[in-house]
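thread: overnight batch results

M.L. [08:02]
morning all. the overnight job finished for the chain we discussed friday. pasting input first so we're all looking at the same thing
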Amino acid sequence: MKKTAFALLLITGLSACKDRNIPDVSDIKVNLTVQRFEQDFFAVDTINMDVDMAQVAGKYGNFFSDYAINILGLPPMNGDSSQVSPEMLIRKFRHDYQPIKDSVDKVFRDFSPYEKEVRKGLQFVKYYFPKYQLPGKLITYIGPMDAAFEASLGKYGDVITQDGLAVGLQLHLGSNFSIYHSEMGQQLYPAYVSRRFAPEYIAVNCMKNIIDDIYPEKTGGRNLVEQMVEKGKRLYVLEKFLPYTPDSLLTGYTGKQLKGCNDNEGNIWNFFLTNGLLYKNDPDLIKEYVTEGPFTQALGQASPGFIGMWVGRQIIRKYLSKNPSVTPEQLLQTVPAKIFEESKYKPG
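M.L. [08:03]
and the structure it wrote out:
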């Protein structure tokens, strides 16, 4: 991402939040260390791989184990001669992913803008959740493009581990990165997903993972409107953690989709009412409105997917306008049915 584009993004974010009541968190201390794991991992000497890799393992501790087992999917070193050795698999991965490493080196030569954004987000986390233990490390790495175990959870390479926040840079190389548009890339990640594989989503994804850590998702057995409120809670808290970030990045919607939602709020809500959807419990029906997609089929191709998240935040905002003393921590703990009922949400 060019510096000019990043500066423009920050200016856009500042203008978008100028009317918000944003607390001063400048005095909140955050101890955050950036570790560029991919640099150390790819710098290992192939001749002395065992010795050098042991040094990397010692430096990164638990994260190295997480990376080897859960990200690379290496087999345990149990001496089974019928298996390909972990060393051979590491050699192959490094060879195959050297072009990705070269691209990462160019895009993230200076990681400080993203570190600064994450650090500022953590200051807001501490402000709103003072008892939460902040992660002390921001670890960057390069993992497989087809990390399906992460993609199935909607994580796409960014996770929170016992060591800190981990960022998979292979999925932050910019929406126009050629591999994302290749046949293999499109099979793994359709365009509506890969367009968010940009550097500016690093802080957004990190804060989403913090929210998941603070408040694990609770949707089991809940009807559609309750699940929308639950999704809306998370989006609202994300907004509090990243108040200078444009709404398009927080929601993952395009600017056009966001404008369509704002312009048609009453029509969207009327759709749910007239079709009697709010109290439905059918998982397949609910999935249409509270999961990712290129668009919401029932609302047309101009609509965003995951429309329930946006509607849920509108309900949250209405509820908080009537209950301004409710903190983000209290909000997360409030039963969604109570929020919906007390909001009296009814857009014009």
